[in-house]
Amino acid sequence: MSAQVHILGPQFSTFVRTVMLCCEEKGVSYSHGFSVNGEEVEYKGPEHLKLNPFGKVPVLIHGDRKLYETASICRYLDAQFEGPALQPEDVYQRALVDQWSAAISLYIDQAVVREYLLELAFPKGENGEVRWNKVSEAQPGVIKMLQVLQAQLGDADFICGEQYSIADALVTPMLDYLSNLPHAAELIAPDSTLSAYVGRMRQRPAAKTILTAMAR
């Protein structure tokens, strides 16, 4: 049986993993990668730019429908397909999920992924070496974002209360990568509520074939 949707982008991308997590949570079958209908799509090439003029991933392809921007994709999946809801019914609680989805996609992604993790994963230093000065400069920003997340989490099970939501799907791949770093304890204290949260997210059935801790 063919997949219901295709996710354009590489599996290592945190945002691609977010969409995959939402599909898994909803029970939506999916394929992923840069091959669409048997044709390779060059990253930032002409066909990619037709799908997303900003040259970013992921892009969701659902029949003739194309969508970009991760949180928008996730909201579409939640509304379009049956399965557990990824957004609360209550208007205010739903707005909180939207708020945190935006904050994670903008501020937390910038500090954690763009300025920190990508420097470790795709070094830009001489001879492809990690620019450790850049990593050191970025680390306080990462710690600040983690403190913000821990304060929001409090004693709740999920980022926005007692229901798994799009906000959790957005932040979990980022925290999973951080938790796998050799110096992870410097960032997320092993006895913290945030560490316990990551452990819970990793144990969800939807996560077990996607997150790095489960795939290694």
From TrEMBL:
One GO CC annotation: cytoplasm
* Keywords linked to the UniProt accession: Transferase
Q: Where is the GST N-terminal domain?
A: 3-85
Q: Which residues form the GST C-terminal domain?
A: 90-216
Task: Provide the GO MF annotations for this entry.
Answer: glutathione binding; glutathione transferase activity
Q: Indicate whether Transferase appears among the record's keywords.
A: yes
Family matches, as InterPro entries: Glutathione-S-Trfase_C-like, Glutathione-S-Trfase_C_sf, Glutathione_S-Trfase, Glutathione_S-Trfase_N, GST_C, Thioredoxin-like_sf
Keyword check for Transcription: no
Q: Which PROSITE patterns does the record cross-reference, listed alphabetically? A: GST_CTER (PS50405), GST_NTER (PS50404)
Q: Which EC main class describes this enzyme? A: transferase
EC number per UniProt: 2.5.1.18
Tell me the protein's name. Answer: glutathione transferase
